[in-house]
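Much of our argument rests on the idea that a fold can be written as discrete symbols. The amino acid sequence and the backbone structure tokens for this protein are reproduced below:

___
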Amino acid sequence: GTRDFSEEFASYGLPCPGIMVTLVCIMEFGIAAVFTAGIIVPDLVFLTSLALAALMVLAVLARIKGNEHWHKMMPATIFGLVSVGCMVIDQSADVSDAVLGDLTSFHGRIWLTMCVMVGDLVTMGVTVYRYRIFVEEK
């Protein structure tokens, strides 16, 4: 179900929870956009993966501070580990003889980036719409 993130952030002891929710959302979507651009510009992957891993560590620590059940920490833990994996994987390969090798070509990466961006925009729209409904019902 839908939950109130400002109440959740307040349980972590964060100052100005309403403002923190907005800042975290802007940061997450900004990093996601740069991370997606890393499909075309592989040099962006390492730094965005590092930033995402650091944010996921902070998310896990916040959940620990909020005395939440361990299963609520799993998404942040998994995304943090995936981010570390992305830092380790060689992003410089441009040619591949793999079955999905077309995706590593420049045109394949542009196509993939456009698909991910459309998915991101739809997800952002649905999230904002559902949150507005949630806030109006309160």
Remarks:
- The two ends are 14 Å apart (CA to CA).
